[in-house]
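Hello, quick one for you while I still have it in my head. No rush at all, and the record is pasted right below.
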Amino acid sequence: MANWKLKDLRDERRRTFLKMCTVASAAVGIERSRLLNFLSDEGGSGLAEAAGATYGRSLLVPSPNGVYAWFQELWPMADLAFKACADTPVTGLGNLGSTSTYLYTSQRNFGTAATYRGTFTPGKGQPMPSLPGGVKGWAGGDRPFFYGPDAPCFDHANGIPKYPVTALMSGKDETHTEFPTSALALSGSSTLQAALASLGASGSSSIVPALGIDPVKYGRAPGAPDVATVPSAAGMIDLFNSAASQFTLAGKFEQEMFETYFKAVIGLRKSSSRSTWAPQLAVTKNAARIIGLNFASQLTPTSDDLSSFGLQEMLTNAVGDSAFMTLGQRNGIEAFGRVLIVVAKAFALGLSKTAIVALSPGSTGEQTFTDPHVTFNDALTLMQGRNTTKYLGKAIDGFYKYLATQVDPESPTEMLDKNTVFVAYGDTPHTPLRGSGWADATPNACNWTYVMDPKGNIKNGWFGQCYPIKVNGMNGIGYDPITGDDNSGKTSDQMSSFSSTAAVFAVAKGDKNKTAEYGTSANSIPGLINSK
C-alpha cells in the first residue's frame, strides 16, 4: 500500500527525499531497479518516475596550458596522419616532408612497415584508398577520421571503433590559457560546460549533479546547478561524504522521513537478513539518524581498478625508469586516471551526472607533459611520448569499460557507458604540421573539440580539418553545418556555437526541443546530427 506522506511530497521536499534515497541505496549497495520498485510501491509510479532522468551524463576534459596536445596522438588529423603513414611528400612542410606531428610513423622510427599504426576511415560514400603499411581501414565512418593505435574504446585487432569519435573544428588557439573558453561558446545565454551540467541535473536525484577538479571556469546556462569543486580524487570522496551529510541532516521532517525509509531501504539489500550483516545493519540504522553516510569504501580506487585503468602497469614500468616516462608524465596520467576511477564509481552509484576533469594541467614550464614541446626531439622523448599516449588512452578506455559493467542508475534497462558522453577541448592542440619543437601556434589559429557519443546521436569523423596544403589560402578550415562538408571560407572560431550545439544534442539524447533551450537550435546543424 502506498504511503500517503510520500504521495503528498511536492517540489523541493520530493527532490530532497529522492536524493536521500539515492544516498541510502548507494551507501549500502542496493541495485537501482530495486529502489525504483520500492519507491513505486511506497509512493506510487509518479515518485518512481521522478527518481529517473531523461538526459545523459557527460565527462568533460578541459586541457589547458598545452596539455591538449596529447589527444592529437589518440585521434590525429585524418589527412595528415594518413599521408605521414604513407610517407607521402607534402608540399609546404620543407625538410619535414610528410611527418606532421604524428608519433606512429616510419619517419619517427616507429616499428616496421607492418607495425600497426592506426585505422583510417575515408567517410561515407568515399572509396577506401590504398592503405599504407600498418594502417587498417574502416568503411563505417560518416566523415574522414584516423584512430591512433592507442585510441580508447576501439577494437584495434579488427580496426573497428566501439564508440566512433567526432572531431569538430571549434574555438581558436588560446596558447597557455588556464581556462580555454572559445570552444565553449554555445549562445548568448549558455556555455557548453554549464549546458551539459544543466542537462545532467534535469530531473536527477544525484546529490552532486556537477563536480569538478579545481580550478574550473564554469559559465552559465538555464537550469545549471552549482558546480562543486575539489583538488583531487581524494577530495572528491570527501565531497560526497559531506554532500550525503547535508541531506541526511536536513530539517526535522526530512530527518524523520530519512530515518524511517533508510531502515526500509536497507532491508532491500540481499544480505540484510544474514547474521554477518547484522552488526553493520544496526550501526547504520542508528547512524542514519545523526550523521551522513560514508562513501569511502565505494569510491576509493582498488588494486583491480588501478589495473583495469592501466595505472598499475604504468607505475610498475615507470618506477625507476625515466626512459619509460618522465616523472611529470607519470604523475599527470596517474592523477587523471585516479580521478576517472572515482568519477566512474560516482556515476554508477547515481551520486553525480556531470564531471569536469582537467587533464592535470600543471605548470606551463613543464615541457614533457603539460606543454610537451620536446616530444619529437629524439628517440628518448619519442618513446616517452608514445607511453604517455598509451596510458592516457588506457585510462579513458578503463573508464568506459567500467561503465559498461554498470546498469545506468536512472535507466535500469541500459548500461551506463551508453549514456555517458565524452567531451575534450583545450587551449591549443599544438600545431599538427610540424614536430620539431612541437610549436603551440596552430595554422590560422585553429582549434577543435573531440566528442565521443556512444549512442551515435551525432555523426562521427572530422568536421573541418587542418590540411598540409592550403585550401583557399587556409590550412585550418571550418565546415558547413548544413551539409557537414569542409568550408574553406570559415575559421574554426566561427564554428564554436555549432560544434557546442552538437555536443549538447548528444547529451540530450537527440532531443531537439531540449537542445534549443540553450540558445541554438539543432535545426541549424543537420550536417552534424543523426535525427530520429
Observations:
- Residues 1-51+250-290 form one domain.
- The chain has 17 helices and 18 strands.
